[in-house]
Write a structure and sequence with these properties.
CATH superfamily of the largest domain: P-loop containing nucleotide triphosphate hydrolases
Helix content: 25-40%
Radius of gyration: 25 Å
Oligomer: single chain
Number of helices: 9
Function: Part of the ABC transporter complex XacGHIJK involved in the uptake of xylose and arabinose. Responsible for energy coupling to the transport system.
Subunit structure: The complex is composed of two ATP-binding proteins (XacJ and XacK), two transmembrane proteins (XacH and XacI) and a solute-binding protein (XacG).
CATH class of the largest domain: Alpha Beta
Domain ABC transporter: 4-239
Strand content: 25-35%
CATH topology of the largest domain: Rossmann fold
GO molecular function, one term: ATP binding
Number of domains: 2
Membrane topology: Peripheral membrane protein
Bound molecules: adenosine-5'-triphosphate
CATH architecture of the largest domain: 3-Layer(aba) Sandwich
Shape: elongated
Number of strands: 20
Length: 367
C-alpha cells in the first residue's frame, strides 16, 4: 500500500538536436489505493512520468516519494513497484508459471511452495489457471496480457503501473479487460497508475484522470470533473467524442446590463449572472458539447442560431450531425429520430447551463 507523490518533477532528455523537456514541473499527490489514469496526446510525457516512478528513468529535477520517503536514488527493484508494459515483456522460453514466479524467485527469500501458492492464486484471479504450463508463444494476445498482469499481482507490490496495457488487444477484448482490471483493483486496493491514449478507458476506469500536454499538467480531476468542468480549451477539446465545438465570441453588454454573445453567424443572449461571472465585455471562446446542442425549430431567436446540415452520420442509438455555421463546422449529437436531410437549414439551440466560456488569451475556463 502506498501514497505516491510527484513533487515538482522535471525530466530533460539530452538529444543530438538539443535538450527535450519531456516533463516540466509536475506535482501530483496520489493517495493510497487510488486508481489514477494519465492521458494525453503522443509525446506528452505519460510514459516518462511512469518510468521515473518505476526507477527506469532518472529524474532531472524534483522528488518522487513513496509513503513520504524519497525514492529518487532507490534502485527499481527496491521500490516495491510492479509495472505492466504494452509489450507484456514475457520470457518466451519460460512457462506461464515460470514467468509469473520469476520476479519473486529473484527478489525475495520466499520458498518454492510459497511462490507457487502465490502464482496459482494470481492465476485464479486472472482466470488463467489452465495455462500455467504453457509457453507465451502459444497464447493469444489477451491471454498474454493476463499473464503479464498476473505476474505483477504475484509480487504483491505497493504500487501497480500500467503502460498502455490493452493497446494490442481488439476492441471487444479491451472492454472486457478494462472491467477485469477494475475488478482486480477493487479486490486488492493497490495504488494504481495507468497510462493510456484511450479516453474511454480513462473515463471508465479512473478515480482521477491526469491530463498532460507537452510535458505539462493540464488538469487533475474525477472523470466527471474533467468532462463537465474542463480547466482549459486543451482539456475541453481532448475529452469527449465527438469533441467539443468552439466559437470565438464577443460579449456585448448593453446599457441596460443585458449581455449577448456575438459570434460569426450567431448571437446568443445570456443571463445577468453569466455577465457578472465573466466580468463584462470581452473576447471569449465559447464551447459546447455536441450532445448539448438541440435541433429545436421553436427555440427563441435570441437563444438559437441557424445552421446548414452537411452530413448525417447514423451510429445506432444516436445521429452525429455535421453542420455549417457561417462557414465553420459544428457537430451535434441527436437522438436517432432527429434525422434532417443534408442541405436542410435547421434551428439549433442550447441551454446556457451547458455552455463553457474560456478566456481568449489564456484559454483558461471562466464558466
Ligand atoms: P506515447 O503516448 O506516444 O507513448 P508519451 O506521452 O508516453 O507518448 P513519452 O514517451 O513520455 O510520451 O515522451 C515524452 C517526450 O520525451 C517525447 O518528446 C519523446 O520524444 C521524448 N523522449 C522520451 N524518451 C526519450 C529518450 N530516451 N531520449 C530522448 N527523448 C525522449
Amino acid at each position: 500500500m502506498a501514497r505516491v507523490e510527484f513533487d515538482n518533477i522535471t525530466k530533460v532528455f539530452e538529444d543530438t538536436s538539443g535538450p527535450i523537456i519531456a516533463v516540466e514541473e509536475l506535482s501530483l499527490d496520489i493517495p493510497d489505493g487510488e486508481f489514477v489514469v494519465f492521458v494525453g496526446p503522443s509525446g506528452c510525457g505519460k510514459s516518462t512520468t511512469l518510468r521515473m516512478l518505476a526507477g527506469l528513468e532518472t529524474i532531472t529535477d524534483g522528488e518522487v516519494r513513496l509513503n513520504g520517503e524519497p525514492v529518487n536514488d532507490i534502485s527499481p527493484r527496491d521500490r516495491d513497484i510492479a509495472m505492466v508494459f504494452q509489450s507484456y515483456a514475457l520470457y518466451p522460453h519460460k512457462t506461464v508459471r515460470g514467468n509469473m514466479g520469476y520476479g519473486l524467485d529473484l527478489s525475495t527469500d520466499l520458498n518454492d511452495e510459497e511462490v507457487d501458492r502465490r502464482v496459482v492464486e494470481a492465476a485464479e484471479m486472472m482466470g488463467i489457471e489452465d495455462l500455467l504450463d504453457k509457453k507465451p508463444g502459444s497464447l493469444s494476445g489477451g491471454q498474454q496480457q493476463r499473464v503479464a498482469t498476473g505476474r505483477a499481482i504475484v509480487r504483491e507490490p505497493a504500487v501497480f503501473l500500467f503502460d498502455e496495457p490493452l493497446s494490442n488487444l481488439d476492441a471487444q477484448l479491451r472492454k472486457h479487460m478494462r472491467t477485469e482490471l477494475s475488478r482486480i483493483h477493487s479486490e486488492l486496493g493497490i495504488t494504481t497508475i495507468y497510462v493510456t491514449h484511450d479516453q474511454e478507458e480513462a473515463m471508465t476506469m479512473a478515480d482521477r484522470i491526469v491530463i498532460l500536454n507537452d510535458g505539462q499538467l493540464q488538469q487533475v480531476g474525477s472523470p466527471k470533473q474533467v468532462y463537465y468542468r474542463p480547466a482549459n480549451t486543451f482539456v475541453a477539446d481532448f475529452i469527449g467524442s465527438p469533441s467539443m465545438n468552439f466559437f470565438d465570441v464577443d460579449l456585448e453588454v448593453a446599457s441596460d446590463g443585458t449581455g449577448t454573445l456575438v459570434g460569426n453567424g450567431f448571437t446568443y443572449s445570456v443571463s445577468d449572472s453569466l455577465v457578472d461571472l465573466v466580468g463584462g465585455d470581452g473576447e471569449y471562446i465559447l464551447s459546447i458539447r455536441p450532445e448539448n446542442l438541440n435541433v429545436d425549430p421553436s427555440a427563441p431567436s435570441e437563444r438559437s442560431f441557424e445552421a446548414t446540415v452537411d452530413v448525417v452520420e447514423v451510429i445506432g442509438s444516436d445521429n452525429f450531425i455535421y453542420l455549417d455555421v457561417a462557414g465553420k463546422e459544428c457537430r451535434l449529437r441527436a437522438p436517432s429520430e432527429t434525422e434532417p436531410e443534408e442541405g436542410d437549414v435547421i434551428t439549433v439551440s442550447f441551454d446556457e447551463a451547458d455552455l463553457h466560456l474560456f478566456d481568449r488569451n489564456t484559454e483558461e475556463a471562466l464558466v
